[in-house]
Specification:
Aspartate Aminotransferase, domain 1; alpha/beta; Aspartate Aminotransferase, domain 2; 389 residues; globular; single chain; binds pyridoxal-5'-phosphate; 4-stranded antiparallel beta sheet; 13 strands; 7-stranded mixed beta sheet
Length: 389
């Protein structure tokens, strides 16, 4: 529609346009490429989960759920966290069911960050953190993880803290690098934040996908950090249902009070039938306890299949992702290589530069192994055919 008197809109995010993810998605669809780009699984979820949602719908659980979530589900979430990490969250005041982890992140930043505040986060990073911070009138402060091990340089964090620092955003296991926090990272973070007002927002959507028998070093494992942390997780990632948009966050009551105020006006509540289904499904702890082995097999298959490819894989300690280095065989920039992989070899990946605000090009591409075995095989075969340039 053409307006006769055009209304001007002053963009709050003028530099946010079509992301590389959309560009890759479109190009990949045009070329019918094998999709190793997205973090979404391409295999089905447990049919019992679908049956549980169907039962909930048929039992007419189709109206608004309680604002902070269905109590039986919140009880299960609190129990799981207590059993796995030894932290106690009050079911009524410290657990919130959200419509996806993304909404949990938005509600936490929206509720706790004020105009003029600074929020430290690490790049490469999941794409939503910095724009959400900017929408609050606050300043995102990016610190680059070291390359190629994608670790935090804690001295840089110390140097970046100012009286305006309100929040530090952590993501472990890390998308896109597949790296995880160690006990020593937690100790450093605790030392840096002690005697400050800094809140930690910990994105732990891949909490159950930590490999090689290692524990997940999340904020709930460290009592001193748990006291100042909002922890966000995703049912979508844990149960192969990224399209259902259900997640949760936990936080001490004083922080949660403010997060709930935003959640209340953003969503009011998350999907009701899905909450009934998850409450039932969470009776079986194997559903999350078996997840690391499930994805570790996929990581290992991918590593074996790519052993004869020209790429050098970086180690992945968790998440759905592997990084592949091509610096030794081509000096084209990562987004050009990714486009060429789609057009010439029929396989879609993501350039790591897409996860940096300044487009840093480390000659690395991200592969998702959250795919069925046929897709992993077809994708790896295509990558093995790549000719060095
Ligand atoms: C690190 C990270 N955080 C948050 C999300 C979003 O999770 P959800 O789909 O539950 O919104 C993703 C999804 O890819 C992710 O990789």
């Amino acid at each position: 529609m053409t307006l006769r008197t055009p209304v001007t809109s002053r963009s709050k995010l003028p530099d946010v346009g079509t992301t590389i993810f959309t560009v890759i998605g479109q190009l990949s669809a045009q070329h019918n490429a094998i999709n190793l780009s997205q973090g979404a699984p391409n295999f089905p979820c447990d049919p019992q989960l679908v049956a549980a949602v169907t039962r909930a719908m048929e039992a007419d659980h189709n109206q608004y759920a309680p604002m902070t979530g269905l109590r039986p589900l919140k009880v299960k979430i609190a129990q799981k966290i207590a059993e796995l990490y030894g932290a106690d969250y009050d079911v009524d005041n410290e657990v919130l069911v959200t419509a996806s982890a993304s909404q949990g992140l938005y509600s936490a930043i929206g509720g706790l960050v004020h105009p003029g505040d600074e929020v430290i986060y690490f790049e490469p990073s999941f794409d939503s953190y910095a724009p959400i911070v900017r929408l609050q009138g606050a300043t995102p402060v990016a610190i680059k993880l070291t390359v190629p091990d994608f670790a935090v340089n804690w001295d840089e964090v110390r140097a970046a803290i100012t009286p305006r620092t309100r929040m530090i955003i952590i993501n472990t296991p890390h998308n896109p690098s597949g790296q995880v926090f160690s006990a020593s990272d937690l100790a450093q973070l605790a030392q840096i934040t002690r005697h400050t007002d800094i809140v930690i927002l910990s994105d732990e959507v891949y909490e159950h996908v930590v490999f090689d028998g290692q524990p997940h070093h999340g904020m709930a494992t460290h009592p001193q950090l748990a006291e100042r942390s909002v922890i966000v997780s995703s049912f979508g990632k844990t149960y192969h249902v990224t399209g259902w948009r259900v997640g949760y966050c936990v936080a001490p009551a004083a922080l949660m009070d403010e997060i709930v105020k935003v959640h209340q006006f953003l969503m009011f509540s998350a999907d009701t039938p899905m909450q009934y289904a998850f409450a039932e499904h969470m009776n079986d702890a194997q559903t999350w306890l078996s997840l690391a082995a499930f994805y570790q097999r996929k990581r290992d298959v991918m590593q074996t299949l790519l052993a004869d490819s020209p790429f050098r894989l970086l180690p992945s300690a968790g998440s759905f992702f592997l990084l592949a280095d091509y610096s030794h065989f081509s000096d084209e920039c990562d987004s050009e290589l990714v486009k060429r992989l789609i057009t010439d070899y029929g396989v879609a990946t993501i350039p790591l530069s897409a996860f940096y605000t300044d487009g840093t090009d480390n000659k690395l591409i991200r592969l998702s192994f959250a795919k069925d075995e046929a897709t992993l095989r077809a994708g790896a075969q295509a990558l093995c055919r790549v000719k060095p340039r």
